[in-house]
Write a structure and sequence with these properties.
Length: about 350
Amino acid sequence: MVQLLSAVVTVLAAASTVEAVPTFGWGHWDNWGKWGDWWRPGLHNAARKKGRYLGTATDNIYLGDKEYVKLWKNRADFGQITPSNTLKWETIEPQQGVFNFTPGDELVNMARDNGQFVRCHTLVWHSQLAPWVEKENRTWTNETLVEAMVNHVTKTAEHFKGRCYAWDVVNEALEDDGSYRKSIFYNIIGEAYIPIAFAAAAKADPHAKLYYNDYDLENVSPKTDGALRIVKLIQSYGVKIDGVGMQAHQVLGRVPTLEQQKEIIAEYTKLGVESAFTELDVRMTLPSTKEMLEEQAKDYYNAARACVESKGCVGVTIWDVTDRYSWIPEYFPGEGEALPWDKDLKKKPAYYGILKGFRKWF
Ligand SMILES: *[C@@H]1O[C@H](CO)[C@@H](O)[C@H](O)[C@H]1NC(C)=O
Ligand SMILES: *[C@@H]1O[C@H](CO)[C@@H](O)[C@H](O)[C@H]1NC(C)=O
C-alpha cells in the first residue's frame, strides 16, 4: 500500500511538472501549465480550451514591481513568457566570446518554475546587437562573420537547451518591400546567413521550435511574400524551420481584418510551418477615448479569433501586460495605451476582447 501510494505520488509529481509543449494546432492542450488551475477564468485558460496558448513578454528590470509580477505569474491568464530583452545579443555576448546568461537564466527559470513555458527571443537580429559586431572598425570576411554568428547561436541555444519551447532564430530580416534588410549579416554573408543560423540553432537545441519573426507579417503584402520566400529558402537548404512569428505591433485604425489575418496564416500553413502572434500590441495616438479603447478591443479580438480559426496558429503573445511598461511611448512619442491592462493594472476592454476571441460565444 505504501509502495502503491508512493508510486501514485511520483506519477502525480511527474504530471504536475509535465513540460509544456504545444503542438501544431490541436493537441496537448491539457498539458499546458500545471494541474489545478485549468478551471480558473483567464486568457490562457480560454486559449487552451481551443488548443492555443496566451502569453506575454516581460523584462527583468520590472521584477521589483510585485503587483505587476503577480499579474504575469497568473497562469490562468498567461501560460507562456517571452523575455523581452535579456536574451538579445547585446546582453548575451557583449564582447566577442564573453557570454552573460545571468539575466536570461533568471527570467527563463522564474517562468518555468512557475509552470509557464518560454519563447526565447532572439538569436540573430540587426538591432540591440553588441557593438563589436558592427560598430567597431572591424573587417569581417564571410568566413569570420559566419564563425562569429554560428558561435553566438550555438553557445546561446546550447545554454538554454531544453528550456525554450521556441527560439526566434532570425528577427526582422526584411524591408517593407520584401527585400532583404541590409544588415551586417546580409551585407557580408548574403541570404545564406538565414539558413546557416537556423542550422546552428537546430543542432544546438534539436527540440526547440525554430521561428522566423518579423513585424507586419499578419497581412498579405510584399513583405509577407518575403517571409514566405525565407521559409522556402531555409527549407531548400534542407534545414528545419518550424514557424513564422507575426509580431503584430499594430496601429489603431490600420489593423488588418480577421479575414486578412486568416488568409496569410493559411499561406504559412501551406508551407508546413506553424505560426503565432508573438509581440501583439495595438497602439493609438493619445489621448484615448472610450471609442478608441473599444476599437482596440475589437483588434485584440481579431488576433485571438484569427489564431483560433486558423489550423496553423498555435498561440498569441502580447508584448507585455500593462501600459505601465509598454515600449511604445518611448519609441513612438505621442502614442501608447497599447496593452490590455492600463497603467494602474486595471483590465481594459482589450482584455475582454482577447477573452471573447478565444471563447466566441460568451
Ligand atoms: C573607427 O574609425 C574611425 C575613422 O577611421 C575613427 O574615428 C574611430 O575612432 C574608430 N573607432 C574605433 C572604435 O576604433
Ligand atoms: C559565405 O559562406 C557561406 C558558407 O559558409 C556561403 O553559403 C555564402 O554564400 C557565402 N557568402 C558569400 C557572400 O560568399
